[in-house]
Amino acid sequence: MKFPHLFEPLAIGSAVFRNRIFSSPQGYYNVAKDNLPSLDEVAYYERKARGGFASVTVGDCIVEDSTGTHYPFLIRMEDRSTLPGLAAIASSVSRHGAVASAELAHAGMYARFVKYPDGSVYGADSMKNAAAATVLGGDLYGPVYIENGKYGEVLEMPEEMILRIIDKFGKAAAWAKTCGFGMVTVHGGHGWLLSQFMSPTVNTRTDRWGGSFENRMRLPLAVIESIRKNVGRDFPIEYRFSGSEASPVGYDIDYGVKFAQAIDGKVDIIHVSAGDHEDDHSIIITHPSMFMEDGVNVKYAAEIKKYVKTPVATVGALTDPAMMEEIIASGRADIVNLGRQSLADPDLPTKARTGREDDINKCLRCNTCLEHTGSIRTLRCATNPEIGFERDAKISRPLKERKRVLVAGGGIAGMQAALTASERGHEVILCEKTDRLGGVLRCEENVPFKLRLHEYLDRQAKQIAKAPIDLRLNTEVTPELAQSLKPDVIFAALGAVPKIPPIKGIDGVNVVEATALYAAPEKAGANVTIIGGGLVGIELAIYLRTLGKIVTIIEALPTLVSDDAGMHLLAHDEAVRQPGITVHRATTVSEITPSGVTCKNDGGEFAVPADTVVIAIGQSPLRAEAIALYDSAPEFYQIGDCVTPRRIITATSQAYTIARDI
Ligand SMILES: Cc1cc2nc3c(=O)[nH]c(=O)nc-3n(C[C@H](O)[C@H](O)[C@H](O)COP(=O)(O)O)c2cc1C
Description:
By secondary structure, the chain is α/β, with parallel strands linked by helices. It contains 24 helices and 28 strands. The two termini are 40 Å apart.
């Protein structure tokens, strides 16, 4: 056993955890408007259990929806009609050998009511309606009165409401147990109700629920007691909270330790997260960005572990089983929780246990998952196209006819199409015109914060090497070659080429295209101007800054892509605001000169000196080249950047979906 500590079972009360790898709470936002768990949701949580996790937690189960929900489509623990759905999740998880946990939550002053002018509460049938309803709002309650809270006026929660909510936590836990869950997780962190009451800065009440530490602890302790009364001594209670809010306005780890000591022995697992959901800086710490190191929040759990006897769980940016083993072996935590990694590869526990670490698809921390929960209420993963389609993926489809599949292009889309088609049992020929698989993103392989992307490309290439795929490098697919191979199916995954704008001076020796500079950063002078503030331009600026360059970004639109928020973009935004990076928005470049660029915006014309000028205005799809292959096989599919250059998820999901259907 390579990871003996990681795979040492843990018995707590009535639960036996088969290893120390838990799937962190990850709410499922695709709950229908009646707020009942769907079959898709069952399949989503079941998939994690099937991959070997010791525990799988259903995120954000709301204990009192009239005051506590922060989103219209969440499971309502008060609603008895949730029984079949919750029971299906609990039994699907436990039948696969994992302990099912329900995370009990109340958003307090960050609750957003879903009330319509006609008085109906849950009528929202689309995000648009939900947003309208949110604006109409209802009364918000938190520890203290706040005239201008983030979502409007916050009323001080009256004592009878506090007592009622304590009771609701207990009843919700009892309901979870009735539905077949083996544990409950109290959501006491990330800025939600319980953390609002424990917060010295937020909770300045002067009655017995605030002011002193003892009073601030009253609500969390009463919630634990209420749950315990309802579920009994043997039923495990996990308490999740932020070890540090990691923000100048939040509490620090010393306070986190004090809190943990106060709940020590009263709960069965102390789950130490970090940050605050409602704070743009600290939410990036709750979900560590790709610009942060692996395991960046373990230090909080490790500190708390020194002071408590209760088993301690850690979470945040964990992808590598060797690191997880070290965390447990060194005693910094007893349990590791994986959030985004459980989406990138739900099979991580099984792969780590069976010596297949090389097969693990490691999370890029690109936050495509979080972005999709906001935009389409459904979880997706950039590099795991099964996520969001777990129910469909579970259905094996017999191959009616084994086809000869030619994939032209070995970038992200081409590799995924080849792998999925081969897994289906088709005969696959994959041609790549260069000497290496991976496509355009290989140019970023030396960028430290793109390490995981590089590993992803390597992993896909290795999977292809292991599969019965006829790989032909240095082979460009012309119509003649395609026809000579007589394929039944062609995937054209030819990619794109950089766009070069017709700016005066573009041919100067000081001008370089972004992907070329990524591949050879030594070509950059000390002072670099990047034309284009999209994802590529911004990330290149961040990279060049790590190499000590002074960087200016010039963007023609009034906003950078990062101004659009979204979790990854928030991280961008923060990185771009560091000294050494200057951004000019709504600015065009009229000329490139040997000493820099001449720009224009509302303020007039001005010069930006630069030793190197980088072009990062996007890519042009190789559509004509793709279409040229159209007649070379009965079935033809154009996928990835040669359709329209987009994000990784577009390429992987398109390739997977089509290849699964042929
Ligand atoms: C898509 C998504 C949904 C999440 N939903 C919840 C949730 O419902 N409740 C919660 O406490 N944390 C939630 N989290 C936070 C995770 O549990 C975890 O703490 C965080 O992602 C950091 O871990 P990671 O780096 O392994 O992803 C969510 C995270 C993601 C990415």
